Amino acid sequence: MNENLDISVIIPVYNEQDNLENICRQTIDALQGKYSFEIIFIDDGSSDNSCKVLEQIYSKDERVKVIMFRRNFGQTAAMSAGFHNAKGSVIVPLDADGQNDPADIPALMDKLNEGFDIVSGWRKDRKDKTITRKIPSMIANKLICKMTGVNLHDFGCSLKAYRREVMETTKLYGEMHRFIPAIANWSGARITEMVVNHHPRTTGEAKYGLERIIKVLLDLMTVKFLGSYATKPIYIFGGLGIFSGIASFLCGLVVLYMKFISPQHLGMNRNPLLLLSAILFIAFFQLILMGLLAEMIVRTYHESQNRPTYTVRKFLQRGDTDEPKA
Predict the structure, then answer these.
(1) Overall pTM > 0.90
(2) DSSP designation for 2
């Protein structure tokens, strides 16, 4: 029953014992009779009775799978485990807190069948606190759109639909789950969004606070670097190095002018621009060398794993049915 399923619903769980039975029942009601499906719960080291509740749910329905982590590894790791063990042609992550509505999944599937690879949920009428959740999320979404070029209103909404083949080439690390559309976009995934329902939390506590803003900013810098310079790091290191070299040269000219021409004479030992010029000159060489080392590491990485620097959407040719070679 696990082969050739239509949908795999993956639900990361962390201390959500009171919500699990409801979210499972709602998901089954939304999909039963319409699609073949499985529900994969990933317990991320819960300290409450979530594991026991999941065991009970598992014993009642063969369409339910449960993965239990030894400790808390974070939502990205939980989602990655779900993606890795999913059997469905389409993978749909869902929050376990009951705020996402499983009834939206059929609409996501309809949208996906219009020719998209990813359909992202947009919590247009979001039922969260304005200061601690909605405003920071709005700022983060605009910043992510600007930095990645992927225009979505709500990157933080877990409710999305992914074609399986897209997620097979998307590797997740750290806290990158919120950037999955941006990461998939590097491979040319076709992405759209649609408005989904959002319900207020009725039980349990939110797991994220304002400290998430710092994590988002740091992860965004990583995503921007990987997306723009992962295969050509010399561009960023070399660019900074050339900037430092030019700045060093200009500082040196000013020092010489102040030494030999300017009436306001400063001794070479007392001129701070001389020290700045030397520091920038050293930084110039260090950044250039760092860029060359990064180029060597990137080439070693791709060549050792036979990892291509491109992905193919479709391959048309006559007389040969073999897959394209990377």
Answers:
(1) no
(2) -
